[in-house]
Amino acid sequence: MIIRFRFLMLTVCMLGAASQVFLNFKPAVAATQTIPAAPSFKPEAALNSATAEVVNDKTPVKATAAGWVKLANGQTAAVVRFEIANGWHMYWENPGESGAPPLAQLRAKDAWTLSEPIFPRPSILKTVDDTEFIYDTSWEWLLPIQGPAGVTAPACSLDLSWMTCKDHCEIGRAHLEFAAATGEIPAAGDVRLGRSFPTVGATATFNSKDQTITISGSTSSAASKSMATTTAQFIPDVMPGASLKSAGPFQAAVSEGKISLNIPIEIQPHNALGKPIVFKGLLLFGQSNSDRCEMIRLPLNIKASQP
Amino acid sequence: MKHSRLTALLTSSALLFGAATFAMADDTKKDKKHDKAADTTDTKEKRVKVGEQVPNFSMTDVNGKTMQFSDFSGKTVVMEWVNPGCPVCAGITKAGLVTKMIAEAKVIDPNVVFVMVNSTAATANDPKATATYLAENKVVANAEVIDGSGVIGKMFDAKTTPAVYVIDSKGTLVYGGAFDDSSDRGSTPGKTNYVINALTQLKAGEKVSPDKTKSYGCGVKYAKGQNG
Fold it and tell me: Taking the model in full, what pTM does it have?
């Protein structure tokens, strides 16, 4: 009897002590979560070895003219290659909660114009302070240049500026000269150029009751069609007039090529700066920068669901 | 007999220890729940959104002087987040866009109050540097606030420098976001300075529009330990 009672007391004490241990347990929290960045758009060993020599904390970014490529729509684009020093990063077209994307101004003869630059798939940098969409390895920026019919890839120059950050930020500038293309222009690699693959047939429904937008449609990715079920991440682009309740990324369900995405959002037409409200962003498949991504771009002529 | 008494004593001690341990654990649990609730409440109270009343808060300026937000009661207040180490913030400041904004604002509303706030941990630890930065660029504000703990920045959810916030004379946050609509993050002045836009609309008795834009610039890197 006494032995049983002692055993009971011992158990009680052990439970008490154990509860203290559990209550004081604090899970380890990673302050910074970075989705690992893949090698650059077209990784070249020679480029990487050169990068270490030309960029450092004093000159964290170097921009070079890297020729011309032909896009899927037949346009030609000047390629700017950025080399980034270790620890520094540049920004996607939507930098996230802070930062700024690079800017380009075309200097060319006649009626040549620079249309919307094409940004490759970025990495996601999450810190306790904010979420940013970044490039932290060498990357290539495509600048489509339009000119008179029948003329492609002219001699021109570009004035560039960019923000680059580490523990502080700096503004970099460069003036690049592009020689006119000679011979056949190579096709752009397309895996990371989401804009070449708009999502087909997507629709947006806004539920005014819970302030959520539902995107549904079909991906153009053959890979996702062949897979029964998978997930993808959606990162939003800049959308004046549409205010997201968080910076993202948001999880999207992909099943046999059909995507489904719910995002808490506030529609604020008075903040659209006089422009149509467009829901846009990148759907990221896989975790690596070399994995496929697709662009979602939907004018929000929203069909509001009944509350 | 003695053995039985000793056993009873030990057993009682064990029972008391066990009960005390449980009681302490329960208290700890309650305290943690209470702390969590308090934290949540605090965070909710401290985050101010456009259209909401700004609660009173304390500010410490570059000279260590403490003041209250309520000291500016009845006046329209413009708060701009600054960081001498940010090239975007320095760009618009050195270009005279901040002094121009203040001068234009005073024409619209002579009583408008300007509060410059530095919440970036790396530079907020040197108040003199912030004061010198503003003085050298001829920025004359009603208050130059050092927010090294990030409490004020978190309250307004300030993400970048420069980011600006306008609080009307009734204490309602009526605008938050970008300094202007510059297409190149301030290198070229935008056509619309959003503070001037808001003050003009307030004077005309109109609703401020836009009341929220995406601010550009360097991220405010808050002191570690401040939960966002």
Answer: 0.76
